[in-house]
Amino acid sequence: xxxxxxxxxxxxxxxxxxxxxxxxxxxxxxxxxxxxxxxxxxxxxxxxxxxxxxxxxxxxxxxxxxxxxxxxxxxxxxxxxxxxxxxxxxxxxxxxxxxxxxxxxxxxxxxxxxxxxxxxxxxxxxxxxxxxxxxxxxxxxxxxxxxxxxxxxxxxxxxxxxxxxxxxxxxxxxxxxxxxxxxxxxxxxxxxxxxxxxxxxxxxxxxxxxxxxxxxxxxxxxxxxxxxxxxxxxxxxxxxxxxxxxxxxxxxxxxxxxxxxxxxxxxxxxxxxxxxxxxxxxxxxxxxxxxxxxxxxxxxxxxxxxxxxxxxxxxxxxxxxxxxxxxxxxxxxxxxxxxxxxxxxxxxxxxxxxxxxxxxxxxxxxxxxxxxxxxxxxxxxxxxxxxxxxxxxxxxxxxxxxxxxxxxxxxxxxxxxxxxxxxxxxxxxxxxxxxxxxxxxxxxxxxxxxxxxxxxxxxxxxxxxxxxxxxxxxxxxxxxxxxxxxxxxxxxxxxxxxxxxxxxxxxxxxxxxxxxxxxxxxxxxxxxxxxxxxxxxxxxxxxxxxxxxxxxxxxxxxxxxxxxxxxxxxxxxxxxxxxxxxxxxxxxxxxxxxxxxxxxxxxxxxxxxxxxxxxxxxxxxxxxxxxxxxxxxxxxxxxxx
Length: 641
Prior knowledge:
Helix 1 packs parallel to helix 13 (222-235), helix 10 runs parallel beside helix 12 (202-217) and helix 22 (398-411) runs antiparallel to helix 23 (415-427). The chain contains 31 helices and 7 strands. Helix content is 62%, strand content 5%. It is mainly alpha-helical. It has helices at residues 2-23, 27-40, 45-56, 62-75, 80-93, 98-105, 113-127, 135-147, 153-164, 170-182, 187-196, 202-217, 222-235, 239-250, 261-269, 275-283, 294-307, 311-324, 329-342, 346-358, 372-394, 398-411, 415-427, 431-444, 452-465, 472-491, 538-542, 544-553, 570-578, 594-597, 629-638, and strands at 510-513, 518-520, 528-533, 560-565, 586-589, 605-609, 615-620. A 7-stranded mixed beta sheet has the order 2-1-5-4-3-6-7, covered by helices on one side.
């Protein structure tokens, strides 16, 4: 059982550090801490609280993570982790009806004391703004749990802190050491109380806190050392400066942008339905290059320039973005990948990748079971290692490239990584292995995923190492895919993930047009595409240029596109429409009720409706410029017969 104790200790260290990073405003680091804790204990409600809380403070993550918990809860309504994560998201974002939903999600506290405490803490936080919840009653429940036999360290530490609000007493001094042993993560909060207290018992409490902090400062636990630094700072102790300098070297900033009002302003400016308008709005902003928000500006400018076909301009912005945030794994990887594809700045990009990989230690296992948190961490690191391998390949360092890409493949099986390894092995003259990896990628790829260089590689290797088939390479590939699909069908549950409205009449007849008046959906001829969106949904707005292209390309075939806003209020949708310029399709509004009427778990969501008003396809999410699912669905709907 030693492995279990080690695992729990690591999870405890990661959650403690997660709270520290949250307190410092390091939300990206806090998310990573939570992921590490969840790798060891996927059901840790404390780690889910940290993960959801940090995501909600990070403008890039909050919508996606809220949607993830919403979907997870729909799939597994009894999961305590899914319920708590969703409740945490709702009480922070406060959509219509959030109070009732939070109450329902957490109305039956777990029988496990540790889980029950985490649930009650979310309820207590929600109760500050929710009339349906009684904060005094919830506080009393937590205090009663603290007095129960076998109470967990978290609840004991919280209850002790409540006692200190009434002042430091001889009794609280006597209990202080025991409390810190039970929950060392409370020491910074306790320190703030005892240093603010002017009573006669405060001096004794301060001495105990400083003694414990000095012990924490010598710990191997990074979170405890940060807590010691907080205590020394509160006490005005000169040890704070030296310890702080050491900690900042050991725990450098992640480099990922933390949310600031300026970043929100940049993000809002980019919410335009065309690339021209988005770029113009971004260029109108006055952002100091020394501000952390500048990397976000460059990133969004690069996306808009790429959408306009200015590849050189997009690359220049991506490079400057990575130079501005050299410790950000995501931003550096984005530039390095572009550099590898273009064959430019290869040495500089490789050095930058080596730096961020060193800041992103491989603490997770590549072994089963692949829980969702470990899988996300593995895939992220695998992608960065693959980028490094591709840079090495472009530099002609073939053995190093092979080793790096094989490491990426061990972390996460991906057709892209198989393709890259095939190129490297071909150049190392290991052609049989190269064909094995190339064919694995080929079978997994859709036709649009391939380029001419890869097709040429496969054709070259097929001549000497391919298996004979009466219809050649294409016939063999189709045979392999058919075998794979048959195996997948055997494993799938019946009635998999098809949306319940597919095959049913679309449930809306009339919607409010943002330009005024109403749109009679049932009066529209030919296939209809309904795009469900909201002004606050980044992927929704990112997909609008694509929808404009579809609306124009299919107009002669009587296809109509209607964008249907589910913003809670109509005013933000109208304001967005007025600033959108000329649109190729209509925008309308239905409000928050659209979530229930259309049975949505996330947006953007597309419904393809035939001329009879029947939903024939539902497409979830937006996959970027190469997402052709809508065109494929429309071509199928318009096909003769």
